[in-house]
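Hello,

Our lab assistant flagged a job as stuck in the queue for most of the afternoon. It eventually completed. Since we weren't sure the result was trustworthy after the delay, we are filing this so someone can double-check. Below is the sequence as submitted and the structure that was eventually returned. Let us know if re-running is recommended.
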Amino acid sequence: MAIEPRLIVTDREADGTSVFVTDKPAAPTTIAAFPGTFYTMWGTDDGGTTVGTEPHEPKTFPFFPGPGGTRVLFLRFAPHSSEPEPTGDPDATAAEGAEKLPGLLDVFEADNPGMHTTDSIDYGVCLEGELHLELDDGKEVKLTPGALVVQQGTRHAWHNKSDKPALMCYVLIGASREG
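-- returned structure --
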């Protein structure tokens, strides 16, 4: 049975008592420019965050956090065999991506499909299926459930070469790029 992403959030009452404030299935988002389903779960403001008696709302956009901000998401990659051929108006496809997942498509290279670089430290955990991580030298590693990738702002692409979906959970921490 496939994992169904679910968001559970805790907080505090005014008297400091811990409570559950959210327990719901995550909302799926799809865009024509990307063969998969995104579940944007939670995020924090850039520059860091605090905990205490003030409630926090999720900061899920822009897609990639700035320095000190965070994002958590699940991403179910469609099998390569089911990826549709690009059709339609490229401007409309880009506009849909910008509307539904602001900032996501900005990091992708137009002349190298799938390749991208982000200013973040990303922890990626493979939960279901198989996924290949390609780096800019063309070398790849296959991830299977239980594998953890630490992406340190490097140029890369993800490929689902299997005939089944692959589910990843990502924690993105915004960083400043040196050099």
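-- support follow-up --
The delay was a queue issue, not a problem with the job. The result is valid. The two ends are 45 Å apart (CA to CA). Residues 28-174 form a domain with the Jelly Rolls fold (CATH 2.60.120.10).
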